[in-house]
Every structure is written in C-alpha cells, then in structure tokens.
Automatic annotation (TrEMBL), chain A:
Keywords: Membrane, Transmembrane, Transmembrane helix. The keyword Membrane applies. This is Branched-chain amino acid transporter AzlD. The chain crosses the membrane at residues 36-54, 66-99. The lineage of its organism: Bacteria, Bacillati, Actinomycetota, Actinomycetes, Micromonosporales.
UniProtKB/TrEMBL annotation, chain B:
The lineage of its organism: Bacteria, Bacillati, Actinomycetota, Actinomycetes, Micromonosporales. Keywords: Cell membrane, Membrane, Transmembrane, Transmembrane helix, Transport. One of its GO terms (biological process) is L-valine transmembrane transport. The keyword Zinc-finger does not apply. Its main location: membrane. GO terms for cellular component: plasma membrane. This is Branched-chain amino acid ABC transporter permease. It comes from the Bacteria. The chain crosses the membrane at residues 12-38, 58-80, 128-148, 160-177, 189-220. It is a multi-pass membrane protein. Residues 225-244 are annotated as: Disordered. PANTHER family: INNER MEMBRANE PROTEIN YGAZ.
Length: 100, 244
C-alpha cells in the first residue's frame, strides 16, 4: 500500500512537471488557474500543520507537538533558518515529553 | 561586458551549490521523518529520487504516517505538486528543451531551480541557474535523505526526539513566506478550520483534501483573492527561495 502511494505520487508529480514544460503558455494567462494554483499550497500546508499538530487518529488532541509548533512559529517570525525552525520544534517536544 | 560574464556565471553556480547544501540539510529531516512515519529505507529513497519535490514528499509521508490511504496520500502530494506545472510554464520559453532533455529537465522543475532561473538577464544565465541548481539540489537532497533515513533507522522510538513535532514545523517553514498578504490568511484559516472539523468524521488524509477543495471554492467565489487581481505565480517562486 505504501508502494502504491509512492509510485502514484511520483508519477502524478512528474506528469505535472512535464505538462508545465509541454503545454502552450496561454494557460498561464488564465487568472483563475493562477489564483487556484496560488491558493492550493497555502490551504494544503495550513491543513497539514493543524492535522499533524492537533490530531491523533480521529481525535483532536493537545500535546507536546503544540509546544513544538509554538516554538516553530516564533522561529519563523524571527526569520530563523529552516533547520532551526524544524530542530527547535523537535527539541521542544522531546524536552516536554522528557519532563512530564 | 565580457569581463563581467565569467564572475556572474561563477556566482550562479556558487549560489546553486549553496542552495543544494541547504536543501541537503532539509533532506536529512525528510529522510528521518519518512522512516519514522513507517516507510522503509527503499521507499524513502525512492520518493526523493522519483517524486523529488520536498513539500509533496513531506505531505505524502505525513498522510501515510497518520493512517491515511494510499489514494489520500498520493492525492495530497499531487495537489501540492501542481505548482510545479506553473513553474514549468514559466520555464519552458527560457529552457527551450525537447525530447529526452525535456524529460530530464521536467524532473528538476522545483521551487529552487525555478527561483534561480526566472528573472535572469539572459536566457543563457537562466538555463545555467536552472540546471546547476536543479542538479545540485537533486544530488544533495537524495544524499541527505539517505543519511537522515539511516539515522532514524538506528533510533528505537522517534517520538523521543520529537520528530513527529518536526513535521508541522517543516510545513510552517514552507507556508510562512506565502503569508505576506491578506488573501492567503483567509485561505489558510478556512482550510485549517475545515480540516480540523472533518477529522473525527472522515477517513485519515481526506481532511487535507477537503481543505484543498475549500481553497478552490473560496477562489471561485472571489473571496480568496482579497478583491485584487495582482496574484502572480512569481509570488510563490520568490516565496520559495526565501524559504531556504
């Protein structure tokens, strides 16, 4: 099942990349296509953040991951490099689990 | 003018290697998180070689790790990868590649290589920026994935290191540069709300797809653009480079 996701995701993403290089550029001029393409990553990333932070299975939860995300928000606001954002979140969650 | 061309080409390649190194470090965290999410070493490396788009890869292993179906995982990855098609549209007139070269170039169409190609003075500099950044990121991203995966494999319990908290942080770092206007905030908040409300009721992975549908609806109803017409695909390209 994991392999199916890996291969389907890879093929789908590759075909999108290839389509971009192959189709007539007129499609880019469509404002609606542009706006949806700009909104999709924002919506997906935002949904993934809250799902990965505040849920376990089908339940809403509040645990060490929330503290990790809070530290990541501060790091991003301070324009810290990527590894500091990710590492800060991981270390925070790990420390909280160690203490409590 | 001629004397300025050489240093310029060198600086493009230097920037490309720098971006590759930064992305390689990011690849370390992908490899570790992927293995911690339950993918094998081979599956993890296959993703970096074949899918080769950071956000989509994190999304795919995130949905699988949360118990989502293969369809939901691949669907989220492909939706997130749709921006690469727009990058390709912008790159096509600069690269002017055909046949096997186009098939190869396509795999390298990602945030970083696009950002390093568009906005150059000449098509030649654009091509150098694209190929040098694309290849440098490809090599170091895959190397980082391998090392990160091996590192995580040697851990007994990844949660002790807080790796599960690293995933949303990685998504946040990708999202932040896109949040400079009012419009993305409307989309982001609506998407997050829809996803959380849906979690108890639908199969894992589906809430994220519902969030994507919400964004499309907001745009179609004219709420997602803040009443302005100036959203341009360069925004996301610039955002991508600042994310590094």
């Amino acid at each position: 099942m994991i392999w199916a996701a890996v291969l389907a995701g890879s093929i789908g993403c590759y075909l999108l990349k290839l389509a971009g290089l192959s189709v007539p550029p007129r499609i880019l001029e469509n404002k609606l296509v542009q706006r949806i393409a700009a909104a999709l990553p924002v919506a997906l990333l935002s949904a993934l953040i809250v799902i990965q932070t505040f849920t376990s299975g089908h339940r809403l939860t509040l645990d060490a991951r929330a503290a990790g995300l809070a530290v990541a928000v501060v790091a991003v606001a301070l324009r810290a490099p990527f590894l500091v954002v990710v590492g800060g979140a991981a270390v925070t969650a790990a420390l909280i689990r160690l203490i409590f | 003018m001629n004397t300025e061309i050489q240093p310029d080409r060198r600086s493009i390649v230097r920037d490309a290697v720098g971006i590759g190194v930064a992305t390689g470090a990011y690849g370390l965290s992908f490899g570790a998180i992927s293995v911690a999410s339950g993918l094998s070493m081979l599956q993890t490396c296959a993703l970096s070689l074949l899918l080769f788009s950071g956000g989509s890869q994190f999304a795919l292993v995130g949905v699988l790790g949360a118990g989502g179906s293969a369809v939901a995982a691949a669907g989220t990855a492909v939706l997130l990868g749709s921006r690469n098609a727009l990058y390709g549209l912008r790159l096509a007139p600069l690269l002017r590649v055909r046949g096997l070269k186009r098939a190869t170039a396509a795999q390298l169409v990602i945030d970083e290589s696009t950002a390093m190609a568009v906005g150059r003075d000449s098509p030649r500099a654009a091509r150098l920026g694209f190929w040098s950044t694309g290849l440098s990121v490809f090599v170091l991203w895959n190397l980082g994935t391998l090392l990160g995966g091996l590192g995580a494999q040697s851990l007994s319990n990844p949660e002790v290191l807080g790796l599960d908290a690293a995933v949303p942080a990685a998504f946040l770092a990708l999202l932040a540069p896109r949040m400079r206007a009012r419009q993305p905030w409307v989309v982001a908040l609506a998407a997050a709300a829809v996803a959380l409300v849906a979690v108890p009721f639908v199969p894992a992975g589906v809430p994220v797809l519902l969030a994507a549908a919400t964004a499309a609806l907001l745009v179609l109803r004219g709420r997602g653009d803040g009443g302005r017409n100036d959203s341009d695909s360069t925004d996301s390209t610039d955002a991508a480079v600042e994310a590094k």
